[in-house]
Amino acid sequence: MTLRLGDTAPDFEQESSIGKIKFHDWAGDSWVVLFSHPADFTPVCTTELGLTAKLKPEFDKRNVKAIALSVDGAEAHTQWIKDIEETQQTVVGFPIVADVDKKVAGLYDMIHPNQSETATVRSLFVIDPKKKVRLIITYPMSTGRNFDEVLRVLDALQLTDGYTVATPGNWKDGDDVIIPLSVKDEEVIKQKYPKGYKSPRPYLRITPQPNK
């Protein structure tokens, strides 16, 4: 199965480090960051889960729940969490799905045979409260993820959902934004963008970020 942006994130019911999870019910009305790992007790993944645990205050501010996945079992997850907490000096406050039968990996296209026939690659999905897939990033198994980028995209998605704007390259919260080409009426522009805009080209209209 190939999952694309705008698709409904597949629901699933699976064991996890905190017991059985029915994904859509667990997600509720939150944004979700769902990310997979090749296996438990692996070094890069240990650092990534530690980083995710430390980002809980940032995720909470954005109404985001984190959930990890590995094809190992729940008992292994429980033991691995102890290692993560000891080596990364944090508390893992999010579940790790035990995808032993690879059901979820199949639904989310997390196994890439040319990388590994059995292990999930480092896929990450941002899913909005309507259960729509809004971001897909897939890293090679040897490369740790950039969680600053995940937070940046969450900020951009939440801003552009709330206001009729787009974000330029390397945008960070507080930077100027772009007026989409779909907005043409000058009266509408005055109403929507009261701070005004500069336009180095007719198609490039830059305005201060709206107040959130």
Average per-residue pLDDT, rounded, comes to 92
Based on CA atoms alone, the radius of gyration comes out at 19 Å
How does the helix and strand content classify structurally? Answer: alpha+beta
State the end-to-end CA separation. Answer: 37 Å
For the largest sheet, list the strands in their spatial order: 5-4-3-6-7
What general form does the structure show? elongated
Q: What's the total number of strands?
A: 10
Q: What percent of residues adopt helix (DSSP H or I)?
A: 25-40%
Largest sheet: 5 strands, mixed
- Our estimate of the beta-strand percent is 15-25%
Please provide the ordered H/E string of secondary-structure elements.
EEHEHHEHEHEEHEHEE
Oligomer: single chain
Provide a count of the helices: 7
**Poorly predicted runs:** none
Organism: Herbaspirillum chlorophenolicum
Function: Thiol-specific peroxidase that catalyzes the reduction of hydrogen peroxide and organic hydroperoxides to water and alcohols, respectively. Plays a role in cell protection against oxidative stress by detoxifying peroxides.
Keywords: Antioxidant, Oxidoreductase, Peroxidase, Redox-active center
Pfam families: 1-cysPrx_C, AhpC-TSA
Account of the protein in words:
It is a single chain. By secondary structure, the chain is α+β, with helices and mostly antiparallel strands. Helix content is 31%, strand content 20%. The chain has 7 helices and 10 strands. It has helices spanning 23-27, 43-54, 56-61, 74-88, 103-107, 147-162, 186-192, and strands at residues 13-14, 21-22, 31-36, 64-70, 96-98, 122-127, 133-139, 177-178, 198-201, 204-207. A 5-stranded mixed beta sheet has the order 5-4-3-6-7. Helix 2 packs across helix 4 (74-88). The longest helix is centred in the C-terminal third of the chain and has 16 residues, at 147-162. It is elongated. The mean pLDDT is 92. This is Thioredoxin peroxidase. Residues 3-159 form the Thioredoxin domain. Thiol-specific peroxidase that catalyzes the reduction of hydrogen peroxide and organic hydroperoxides to water and alcohols, respectively. Plays a role in cell protection against oxidative stress by detoxifying peroxides. It comes from Herbaspirillum chlorophenolicum. GO terms for molecular function: thioredoxin-dependent peroxiredoxin activity.
